[in-house]
Design a protein that fits this description.
By secondary structure, the chain is an alpha/beta fold. The protein has eleven helices and 15 strands. β1, α1 and β2 form a beta-alpha-beta unit. Uridine-diphosphate-N-acetylglucosamine binds next to α7 and β9.
């Protein structure tokens, strides 16, 4: 079976991808130092998949450790998730972000090139589009490269590094997936999002508030030029997103693209913050405490994916609805809080 190295494989998107890889006949090997995840995730992955999952608790920035643990392992492809992702924190600690996200990518790429790896998938983000000018639906052709935070800038730089490496003529197939807003959890209720501290992202804050961890949700801004005054995003079920990575590895193997492929992974549909709250209440039957507050600095007003390229190139489209994702996220929250 083909071995796929998954960096950050105990994290939110990484763990769901490990499940999809196994279900599609791949053999994932996890590298994760658990700084933003829990070792128990590995046990839960083993429960879901009913097989043991090799993992190494090392930092991807530690070149020697990476070399030591993977010595003599033939890796077909790498899916590189391991990175920081909190926009606000990146503004406060930019060097920590550049160090981990950029240096980490360079190390992993270096290892890939020295060890005959064939395929490489990079976790990019719709944040590379910054605040799109005059459009809401962004395609891969939409101008990118001016992200509005150091976190976003690490994704812009990551994409540039990949372009330059590919351009140098290396024998590595490279795909950068630009994620929109992943939400939800695995239907088993065994894995999901585990924010450290107070969540920054919308749905974890909603489910934690409904679970009684916070008094109320603050909706950041109600005077945006959108249908109801709140920001609009393209929320995608994390299992759909995970599946896009499997399709991505298959695509690289079949097509061996000559340059880096950049592909949006979103549903193609925008949903406002108020619509999310309303759908949460309808889906779960729980009333949510919330209030309007000021705008959050750096928020993009309205953005969603043009999802044509993922359909055409990867044969992938989102299968799950926002209701499915909310239902799974709420189940997960109830499981971890014993509600
Ligand atoms: C941003 C980035 C995304 C990145 C992610 C990492 C963009 C367009 N998206 O997501 O690429 O991967 O951060 O965390 O740059 N909201 C509230 N109250 C809350 C929390 C959020 O009203 O307590 C609103 C926000 O204002 C926003 C929406 O909910 O309109 C979604 O916010 P969030 O979940 O943080 O995701 P993004 O900011 O879109």
């Amino acid at each position: 079976m083909k071995k796929i190295l998954v960096t950050g494989g105990a994290g939110y998107i990484g763990s769901h991808t490990v499940v999809q890889l196994i279900q599609n006949g791949y053999n994932p090997i996890v590298v994760d130092d658990f700084r933003n995840s829990q070792p128990a995730v590995i046990q839960n992955l083993e429960k879901i998949t009913n097989q043991s999952i090799p993992f190494y608790a090392i930092d991807i920035c530690d070149k020697t450790a990476l070399n030591n643990v993977l010595k003599n392992t033939e890796i077909e492809g790498i899916i590189h998730f391991a990175a920081y992702k909190a926009v606000g924190e990146s503004v406060e600690k930019p060097l920590m972000y550049y160090h981990n996200n950029v240096e980490g990518l360079i190390n992993v790429l270096d290892w890939a090139l020295n060890n005959n790896v064939k395929h490489f998938i990079f976790s990019s983000s719709c944040t590379v589009y910054g605040e799109p000018q005059g459009i809401k639906e962004v395609s891969e052709e939409t101008a990118s490269g001016i992200a509005n935070s150091p976190y976003g800038q690490t994704k812009v730089i990551g994409e540039q590094i990949l372009n330059d490496v590919k351009h140098s003529g290396v024998d590595l197939n490279i795909l950068a997936l630009r994620y929109f807003n992943p939400i939800g959890a695995h239907a088993s209720g065994l894995i999901g999002e585990l924010p450290v501290g107070k969540p920054n992202n919308l749905l974890p804050f909603i489910t934690q508030t409904a679970a009684g961890l916070h008094k109320e949700l603050t909706v950041f801004g109600n005077d945006y030029p959108t249908s109801d005054g709140t920001c609009v995003r393209d929320y995608i079920h994390v299992v759909d997103l995970a599946e896009a990575h499997v399709k991505g590895i298959d695509f690289l193997a079949q097509n061996q693209p000559k340059s880096v492929e950049f592909i949006n992974v979103g549903t193609g549909k925008g949903t406002s913050v108020l619509e999310m709250i309303q759908t949460f209440e309808e889906t779960t039957g729980k009333k949510l405490n919330w209030k309007f507050g000021p705008r959050r600095e750096g928020d993009v007003v309205e953005i969603y994916a043009n999802a044509d390229k993922s359909r055409e190139k990867l044969g992938w489209i989102a299968q799950y609805s926002i209701k499915d994702a909310i239902n799974d996220a709420w189940n997960w929250e109830k499981n971890i809080r014993n509600i």
